[in-house]
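Before the break, one more example. Copy the sequence into your notebook; we will annotate it together after we see the structure.
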Amino acid sequence: MNRWLVLPLFTALLSLAACGRPSEPPPPPTEERPQPTAVTPLPPPTSAPPTVNVDFWTSDNEPSRVAVYRALAERYMAAHPGVQVTIVPFVESSVLAQLEEAQAVGQLPDLIRLSMEWVPALDSSGLLDSAAAQAVVEAVGASDFRSGVLAMATDRGRLLAVPYDGWIQALWYRRDLFEASGLNRPISWADLNQACDTIEASGPPAFALVLPTLSNQSYTHQVFEQVAMSNNVWPFDAAGKVTMDTPEMVEALRFFSALQRCSPPGPQDLYSARERYELGETAMLFYSTYIMDDLVEGSENADGGKVEIAVEDLPAKTGFTSSLTGPNGTASYGRLETLSFLAGAEPAAQDVARFFLQEGYLDILATAPLGKVPVLESALEAWSTSSPIFAVYSPATLGHIANGFATMKSWVLRPDYSLAQKATIGVVEARLLLPQVIEQIVAGELTPETAARQLQAEVEALYQLRLNQP
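Here is what the structure looks like once it is written out:
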């Protein structure tokens, strides 16, 4: 696909009018002659229908998952020879910058799989085709979508994107080590502090927790957002005022960064956190339900290899809690992934999205079944038996995961927030404002108080831009 869009805050492009070729004059009249009856006229020449290009960007960027997307695209193209579907993996944490770059060269995608966190920012910039999303939901059947998921993707009665799958975040911990040390299940800040000090002091493992502190990864934002919500920290209050410098925010920043005392030195990302737990080097980590597959099979390395699980029967020795209790509240955290259409998308992209929600849906879910909870009621039963991974975990655990949409929260899913507020939240994550200050606090370059004041000023400026945007 190759098109230009007129976007707010970007230079408008001139549209060119198509020029028609003048018609040829009619040929001069000729004398009629009888035609030989033995010759059969040739049929008019036929030409192949023009190819429609549908560019489909996906945040499922692991090589094994990309291979499944591309195999499904081949299946679709075999049945629809006039459509060319191109799968393009991308890194979600920099999606807004990547889309701006694509827009600048006229290469915006038609269809994109990405988290709901980013959708309001795209919509407020004039990038979304919400009518296309509504058409796909109607083609699939609105009644097939599980309770609540359509509301998560709706703003003031307008569906912004098509719900696709989702996951919940949890604190995963070595239940065997906790029981041996007489520790409580880590469901509160106090429990986390106690486990942090006890396990770090006794060892092994070498570390009690892998704390995400890398400044250029959304993983750090995602974990901190749950900690913040557990202390009743929200970006805006009921009056619409930015609230990033409250005492509750300072307290959340102080608690989070203090956990570094029992974490490996240096910035940690989601790959190092996952691998250290699989290798038995840490007793706790925050991670999405995607890790449930990795605890059985070992996670995938950048080179395509697998981490060798170093702890025998690790899934059985692992417990988890999806809610966290702080001084001022309790919070769970999760993400809704969507299929979103960019403005000007080829109409054929709607049927491609429908195909990936129906004929190809179970293939996509099977790439990480416990990290991809289906949004369709009709897919639940087949999903629950789609992988041998399910047999490793208890029915209670699987039920908790399957029903995660009913409990998960995030700042952007708060229903009383306006589109401008939700868009601002997406830009805050896109610009990695929280990971940057967290890394600086851990490095001793900022205090929690100065970090909160810095965040307040930055978010106020971003919000004002959104309010002034035409």
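The chain has two domains: 52-167+335-393, 168-333+411-468. The first strand starts at residue 52 and ends at 58. Try to locate both features in your own notes.
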